[in-house]
Amino acid sequence: MAKTASANPPAPAVARSSKQWIFSPLLDLLVGCGAWSLPLLALTFYLGQRNAVTLSFAFYFLGVFCNQPHYMATVYRAYRTPEDFNRYRFFTVYVTVFIVLTLLVVHLAPALFPWLLTFYLTWSPWHYTGQNFGISLMLARRAGAQPTNQDRTLIWWSYFASYAVWFLALHNTSTPGDVNLLILPIPAAVAQVGKYFFLAVYLVAGGIGHFRLVRQIGVRAMAGPLTMFVTQFLWFLLPELVRVTTHFQFSPTYASAGILAFMHCAQYLWITTYYAQRERTASSTAPKNNHEPTAAFRFSSYYLILILGGIALFVPGPWLASRVFGHDLVESFFIFSALINLHHFILDGAIWKLRDGRIARLLLGRNPPVEESGQAPGTDGARSPLGWLLGPKPVARTVRYTAGATLLALAALDQTQFWLTLKNSSQPAFALAQLFNPQDTRVYFQHAKQLAAIGKNTEAMDELRHAIAINPRNAPVQHLLGELLYRSGDTDAALAHYDHMTVLFPPDHVVLVNRGLLAAKRGDTTKSRESFEAALRLSPDDTGLHLYLGQALETGGDLSGAINQYALYIHLHRDDMNAPEVLPNYLRAGLKLGEISLRRNEREVAVNWYRRVAEFARQTGRTEELNLAEANLRALQAAR
After folding, report:
1. Could you tell me if 367 and 496 lie in one domain?
2. Coil vs helix vs strand at 583
3. For position 513, which CATH number holds?
4. Which of 58, 100, 482, 585 is deepest in the core (most CB within 10 A)?
5. 566-581: per-residue pLDDT in tens?
6. Cα separation, 5 vs 363, whole angstroms
7. Does residue 407 lie in a domain region?
8. 527 part of a folded domain
9. CA atoms within 13 A on the CB side of 12
10. In 561-600, which positions are buried (b, 16+ CB within 10 angstroms) versus exposed (e)?
């Protein structure tokens, strides 16, 4: 839900009492203000560590009853009556047509998919932030507060700052690479300073803004907005604090999927259900020019419409694109999801604003509004395009029931397909999933992983090639095939595969490293050096690349460059040389420096390096490196 506050002077405060809350204090605080965030975040984190597969299915299943209906709630609001449809015509017609055209273009040009996904994942948390900010000010006004423009600005800056921390945590040069995400190259040091700055803005601006409202109406009346302020911290700041203080890492999609998406969607349904109920009540009490009674609001009917509409938005499209046009079901699902979300963000921002007097009166709990014409909405003789379908005639009723049953059956098929393609499924489950939809690359990928785990690499590669034939841009499939080719010992085939991946995808650390190692095996020192240098630019913190690059430079005859790389590795690990993962490479780098110095006729330098390695190897119990260093020292002594 977009920002619901306006730049107009604050309206007179409403009386507190029952108007302070939407449904009840408990439900409003838990769902509307996110008081359940901490226990739900802790629970899903605990379950994710133990059974991530089942948890992913649980969220996919919940999507039918929460996430998908929340999108339909905005569509229902904008398209339900001719008045609403015409009021938001720019969004209901022109933006919708643009989204549909974009959907077709991305299916035809899959290279645009990373741009679309990155745009969606970056905007989605901002959408959550706008909804939290709007609900916070709405509850403050319902409780009797009169926020000034300065109060509103301070609170807005606090919410913006929390989003900015998340944005910088994603878009910086230290973020792990992902072929489907286009990360902005903000220097990691700049991003780190920015995160501390915006954390301070969140605390100071938010603290001052909320304190000013607490002075007006008291802490108890501000329970909702204060809870929302803490929720914003839990959603966007806590994960980053956990990431920098522990070894736990969070996927870039954590703010757009899983438990955060579920809580956001539940919050959205909470407020839109209240609005739909109030609007129907207002319509039933408003003067009418005809004799048609307005049906009372029934949550069961409203919720069923949202469920069926949500299924219609998300499920048929990807299945149609995959079965009819041969597109990868998984990628098509993400394309549809991203574009439906973007349409929702745009349409939602236009609708849910307190600048609209009717919405303001309903959400702020004032007198029920009446249309300027004196008629209830939707009763002026202009009929909805779906008026016949929603009518009482037997044929219309049959069509409705048939369409509803078809959508529920399709949703059940989609859920079954997801369950059958989980990584712990059996071969019969994969065969059934492939029968349902042979364009689902998850079937081939999961089966290939199981085959590779038991050593059947040839069969696994056949499965992966089936998936690649459907979607060449499926990065996990391409990575696994490259890994299996590397293990097979077929250097030429593996190198050709990684060469193709460098053309197909943005620069990737793993691809570049494996390509460099394979090129070194074939004696192509130029390609090997170029690959390691590119990988080092992409991941400057991977110090092992200095050893690979040093070896490539040494093989290519650039002894000075090789010395620089080996010496740099030793310099970078001067404080943790005893670490188990560092010690062997540290000693190897020292031996290499001695060897290269000897090749350059720098005997004293070589002796010094061999002595340093021998002494350190003796201290750490590394017999192999000790024997090698001492043997070289004896050879040098004998040569003298």
Report:
1. no
2. helix
3. 1.25.40.10
4. 482
5. 999 999 998 888 888 8
6. 12
7. no
8. yes
9. 3
10. bbbebbbbbbeebeeeeeeeebbebbbbbbbbbbbbbbee
Structure tokens, 512: 């570049």
List, in order, residues 6 or more apart from 551 with CB less than 8 Å away. 520, 562, 592
What pLDDT does 388 receive? 62
Hunting for tokens 């902005």 — which residue is that? 184
- Residue 405, token pair as written in the block: 């049953």
Residues in contact with 597: Cβ distance below 8 Å, sequence separation at least 6, in sequence order: 563, 603, 605, 606, 609
d(CA 177, CA 501): 14
Q: What is the pLDDT of residue 292?
A: 52
Q: Which of 559, 566, 558 is nearest to 600 (CA)?
A: 559
Q: What pLDDT does 99 receive?
A: 92
Tens-digit pLDDT profile for residues 538-554: 888 889 999 999 999 99
Spell 507-530 as b/e; 16+ CB within 10 A means b: ebbebbbbbbbbbbeeebbebbbb
Q: Which of 473, 493, 474, 471 is nearest to 482 (CA)?
A: 493
Residues 476 and 368 in one domain: no
d(CA 100, CA 459): 40
Q: Are both 479 and 365 inside the same structural domain?
A: no
The confidence score (pLDDT) of residue 15 equals: 41
Winning range, highest mean pLDDT, from 220-234, 268-282, 316-330, 418-432: 220-234
**Are residues 76 and 223 both part of a single domain?**
yes
Cα–Cα–Cα angle for 239, 242, 248, nearest 5°? 100
Phi, psi at residue 623, to the nearest 5°?
-65, -45
Distance CA 132, CA 35 (A): 12
Mean pLDDT of 346-371: 67
Rounded to an integer, what distance in angstroms lies between the CA atom of residue 66 and that of residue 200?
34
Residue type, 234: L
Domain end, chosen from 351, 377, 403, is at: 377
The structural domain count of the chain equals 2
Label residue 374 by pLDDT band (50, 70, 90).
very low
User: What are the phi and psi torsion angles at 14 (to 5°)?
Assistant: -85, 155
Same domain, yes or no: 369 and 483: no
Q: 143 with 273, same domain?
A: yes
Alpha-carbon span 355 to 614, nearest angstrom: 77
Distance CA 420, CA 438 (A): 13
For residue 624, CA distances in Å to 584, 591, 593 come to: 10, 12, 17
Q: Dihedrals φ, ψ of 370, to 5°? A: -125, 140
Give domain status of residue 300, yes or no.
yes
What does the alpha-carbon distance between residue 55 and residue 77 come to, in Å, rounded to a whole number?
A: 32
| Section 188-216 average pLDDT | 95
Length of the chain: 640
> What is the maximum alpha-carbon separation in the chain?
116
> Which of 314, 342, 377 finishes a domain?
377
Q: Supply the range of the domain harboring residue 515.
A: 470-639
Q: Is the per-residue pLDDT at 336 higher than 60?
A: yes
Helix (H/G/I), strand (E/B), else coil: 167? helix
Shared domain check, 143 and 22: yes
Looking at the structure, tell me whether residues 96 and 226 fall in a common domain: yes
How far is Cα 588 from Cα 607, in angstroms, rounded to an integer? 15
In sequence order, the 6+-apart residues with CB closer than 8 A to the CB of 486 are 494, 514, 518
Q: Is 172 exposed, middle or buried (0-12, 13-18, 19+ CB in 10 A)?
A: buried
Is 64 inside a domain boundary?
Answer: yes
Average pLDDT over the chain reads 86
